[in-house]
Amino acid sequence: MFIQTENTPNPATLKFLPGCNVMETGTANFTSVDEAAISPLAHNLFATPGITGVFLGADFITITKSEDKDWDLLKPLVLGSIMDHFQSGRPVMSEASTTDGSADDAEDDSITRQIKELIDTRVRPAVAQDGGDIIYKGFEEGVVYLHMQGACAGCPSSTATLKHGIENMLRYYVPEVEEVRAV
Phi and psi for 51 in degrees, rounded to 5? Predict the structure, then answer.
């Protein structure tokens, strides 16, 4: 098994591409070993000292490390854990518990549906390339609330991405949008 790695805009994260599907549908974000109990893969990755976050995407895994650890030391351990997991044949998730961020609410109005569609078709694919995800959390009084996951969470350029990229795009297509905020 050959696992590729890619740098992300966030220096505390690396994107690992195992060359196979990781999540069949949706994504999963874990920020602690307790949260990772439903994922044998994420749970094993948290056993590596210095791992502070695991994000599972369609065909990638984004790992976040603590500031006091070095990727030169962590990377071989993470690669070994990922390889061991996929060679063992164990499932990535022990429960069907994923968040794809696109759940439709029957009560959504046309503005909310348009915002969600733009996020799902234009924003999420772009940030997935950097090892992250952005989840729609709400729209209230002209403000769109988004939750950043994976490499996007804590990324130095996330504010610029939100303000200059996502906010400008949403304001262009949906005049009712005045601002975008991270939650």
Answer: -85, 125
Q: What is the CATH number of domain 4-88?
A: 3.30.1370.70
- What strands, in cross-sheet order, belong to the sheet with 4-7? 4-7, 13-17, 61-65, 51-56, 28-30
Give the closest residue to 47 by CA, choosing from 22, 77, 18, 3: 77
Q: In degrees rounded to 5, what are phi and psi of residue 112?
A: -60, -45
Contact assessment for residue 16 and residue 60, using Cβ atoms and an 8 Å cutoff: yes
CATH of domain 110-182: 3.30.300.130
Q: Going along the chain, which residue ranges are E strands?
A: 4-7, 13-17, 28-30, 51-56, 61-65, 132-140, 143-150, 179-182
In tens, the pLDDT along 119-147 reads 888 888 888 888 888 889 899 999 999 88
